[in-house]
Write a structure and sequence with these properties.
Elements (H helix, E strand, L loop, with lengths): L2 H16 L4 H20 L11 H13 L4 H20 L26 H9 L6 H16 L3 H5 L6 E2 L4 E5 L5 E5 L2 H13 L25 H14 L8 H14 L4 H8 L4 H4 L7 H11 L7
Antiparallel strand pairs: 1-2, 2-3
Helix pairs in contact: 1-2, 2-4, 6-8, 6-10
Length: 303
């Protein structure tokens, strides 16, 4: 067994036992290290990880770039190598970490597709409300767009957390953090219709009595089903966009900001701990920016 294989085997045990990572995560880390090992073989470099220098790693990253790997893939591989060398230092297999000064590509924040209000109306309008499941689906999609929920927050929404009288819902977000989010009267109306005409006809189980959105078996709807509902609607109206439940959340935030909502208010509604996360939703189309400048800047002429 080569020294590389010995270190990789020990690294695998460390990830499995001490870090308790999933098999998929472990495979990803090991794949990153094996990529470096194979590159070094191609370049006839040393087989001793202790002799690898920063320049060797920089050349490896350049090699990945030449393979047309995306910036995001390169950054992930660099992260895997840093974890590997951190482990080698921790176990005193090596004395110096060559990845300390290794820099990855600058990653731009990738924006998902956004739906216009008309597109959202078309999607929801394509539901055949003669079918019980689509009465539920309409309530779900109205809720997604009305309150900007994550799909996990939607499927875990409780009846007792819907406050019809004050038009708010209590949402359990990431890290079990709670927040109160306004919900529109249209969404509430369709939730009420769903509860009165569909949900009360489903099989009733005490453990799910407070869960709002259920499948036909009377158990909570899955996140996969929400994805499928949206994908099917997009196909039905020939919408040429890659959309998901998150697209509704993104559209919710974008439409609020385009309408003049305060960024801090949007941050609170989305449940972001940092406002820098919310800023990804502030991309505005060029026409909207031109119109804003034309309205507010005295020396800007709208072409």
């Amino acid at each position: 067994m080569s020294i590389w294989n010995l270190y990789i085997k020990n690294f695998e045990g460390y990830l499995k036992i001490e870090k308790s990572l999933s098999p998929n995560s472990i495979d990803a880390y090991l794949h990153d290290v094996e990529l470096l090992m194979n590159y070094l073989k191609i370049e006839n470099k040393t087989n001793d990880p202790n002799e690898i220098k920063l320049i060797d790693l920089e050349n490896f990253i350049a090699y990945l770039h030449d393979l047309d790997l995306s910036d995001r893939s390169q950054a992930r591989i660099i992260s895997g190598l840093k974890a590997f060398y951190k482990f080698l230092i921790l176990e005193a297999f090596i004395k110096e970490d060559p990845t300390v000064l290794l820099e990855g590509p600058k990653l731009s924040k990738k924006l998902p597709d956004t739906l216009s209000f008309d597109e959202i109306e078309q999607l929801i309008g394509a539901l055949d409300l003669s079918k019980d499941e689509n009465v539920r689906n309409k309530a779900m999609l109205e809720t997604l767009y009305s309150s900007g929920l994550r799909v996990s927050e939607l499927i875990n929404l409780k009846i007792s957390h819907v406050y019809f009288d004050i038009e708010f819902i209590r949402v359990i977000g990431k890290g079990n953090k709670e927040r109160l989010v306004p919900i529109g009267s249209d969404a509430l109306k369709h939730i009420q219709i769903y509860m009165e005409h569909v949900r009360n006809k489903l099989p009733q189980y005490p453990k799910y009595s407070d869960m709002l959105f259920l499948n036909k078996r009377g158990t909570p709807i899955s996140r996969v089903m929400v994805f499928i509902v949206i994908k099917n609607l997009a196909e039905k109206i020939n919408l040429n966009k890659n959309i998901s439940p998150h697209t509704f959340r993104h559209s919710f935030a974008t439409h609020l900001i385009e309408g003049g909502a305060d960024l801090r208010a949007v941050q609170q509604m989305l449940g972001h701990s940092s406002i820098t996360t919310t800023e990804i939703y502030t991309h505005l189309d060029q026409q909207y920016l031109k119109e804003s400048l034309a309205l507010h800047h005295p020396r800007y002429n709208l072409k």
